[in-house]
Amino acid sequence: MSKKERNKKYRESHKEETKEYKQKYNKLNKKEVAKYQKEYNKQYYKSNKIKIDKKNKTYRKENIDKVRETGRLYKKNRKSVDSLFKLSQNIKSLILGSIKSSGFKKETKTAKILGCTIQEFKEYLENQFESWMNWNNYGVYKINGKRTWQIDHLLPSASAKTEEDIIKLNHHSNLKPLCSKENLDKGNKLI
Question: What's the pTM value of the predicted model, to 2 decimals?
Answer without folding.
Answer: 0.69
